[in-house]
């Protein structure tokens, strides 16, 4: 897909109260980018090097091969910046030779975002019971348990995982591993 | 049937198939198999430089003066790291370069082997793309891909790292037409609606200006021809960045001269006061824009560029057009002609009368001297005495570079080699060698400062070995002139480390290398000395002792707007003090 860096679409930003995004806005927005890349050595280093070299933010990054025969990997990046910076990030990504496509899921239409986390909580008595009860509410699964601890597996939006982790903290949260965001556009396309 | 050959043979075969006639390089352990193959053939000429940085700059000079990619061959480790400055230089100036580096054998990679460096890791941010080839079967195709990437879209340097065992091993050769050039096909033609929008703007504009850059040169000689046709057809004024000099001829009637930090007064004020700015293949570099918030406040800005990431990177534009300059100009001319070649003639005439007022400030005026050679005078004489020649100019970086851009006129593209983006001192001398290799009969002059020139002076060995009659025209002020100027104007005249107390005798230095040295310190001797330099058939170091404390004006101090441009005392006296507008 060819990117058109200047195309300002209606409802482009959920953070904006106006229908159009102001290109000169200084307000930082969070965007989720899906980058389809040739699965070759060094391609992730190129993408990460671009962000560090040009001073862009990475809030979350996931990468895995998604098309073995086509030799393609998908990198999902959550980044933050003013509209001008976001446009620049997309254009810079598009310029990397092994990058095939860059999609801004935040702008291009509705999308689903999910993240998986493993959370270890240790405690006894009431706290242990409360942790289990909250896990049930959040539909987290117990994937490991000892007499003094649980490891929960939880899937959801990053906000949901944040909320669950916040609740677990006073109940004995010990350790957490998160995968970063994976995201897809909704609909049949 | 596929041809079987060793990796080293593939390298030479692929270079031949790519039409390469010259390689700049320096041998070492990890590239010996390739050097062996170079020894066994006569189609490709290898130029032995004296330092790998020199190889890359020479390849840049070759590339910029021919439009063809420059090719470099160096060894692993220090060979590759020495090439890094040249790669970064080529990246910032969008010069097509293919660098082949040797690497330790695949089984040694990661063991801190002798002369091992993570070459692809080190050069990833300073190449357009790079490859480590671990399998001989992939080698020839990768080389073909590398040439494709280096030369298509916005050109740039690429690097292929080839482990020694891959050079020895056999594999099947992939012919150039069969090589997959992957998905990398940058867009050349722009949307016709945008072209029509641009034509509509051209028809209405009252105070237009063309702001052209290196993209016009990179797009090929055709782009320069089309630019000339459009500029002369519309009668609009045209200015250019340092990188774009020669795309529109300096003798052309619409030429305003270079713009930017040391650009001409009229060019900068035209940029500041225009109502339509048409940027063709330039990138709103900070040396051009000055203070971004105050940059050309009242203009409608159009930006034509082949690289989408150049759009809105620094300056927000009103009409972005993604495409190759030649393709876009061709379409613009077609549409503009079909709509009746309209411009707002009356308004444009008025605009020109304003520009002519600015021109009358004579911003390049300087105080002449009978006793010391003014650097501006030296360049005026160089210009006058070399004008009719088949001439190519390279420069180093600093005051002399800006004076060269101001005082030398370029009538054709590809005649001007200078390090614009990176500002690499030490660029000009090896670049002049690359130019002379490509154009053996031309007059190739490197306008240099003595400090820059010393940074790659070892290349005298190369110039003498290949009998390259490159002229090193050194404006010697025994100072880091531009550093000194900034220290004078912005750091309270504290001249911290900006002069050298131990300069060589350049005449003796030339003679030590087996070249000719000329010393000139009296303005009265200058013409004869320059003629002696031109007429000498061989490399010359011309040590031109110039005024030590001359400043380069006009100057837009860093962080200031175009209308805050500083003029030299001579010009200011003329306009009655201070900048207009």
From TrEMBL, chain B:
It catalyses: 2 pyruvate + H(+) = (2S)-2-acetolactate + CO2. GO terms for cellular component: acetolactate synthase complex. Keywords: Amino-acid biosynthesis, Branched-chain amino acid biosynthesis, Magnesium, Metal-binding, Thiamine pyrophosphate, Transferase. GO terms for biological process: isoleucine biosynthetic process; L-valine biosynthetic process. Binds 1 thiamine pyrophosphate per subunit. Binds 1 Mg(2+) ion per subunit. Gene3D superfamilies: 3.40.50.970, TPP-binding domain. Residues 195-331 form the Thiamine pyrophosphate enzyme central domain. Its cofactor is thiamine diphosphate; Mg(2+). Residues 397-544 form the Thiamine pyrophosphate enzyme TPP-binding domain. Residues 5-120 form the Thiamine pyrophosphate enzyme N-terminal TPP-binding domain. This is Acetolactate synthase.
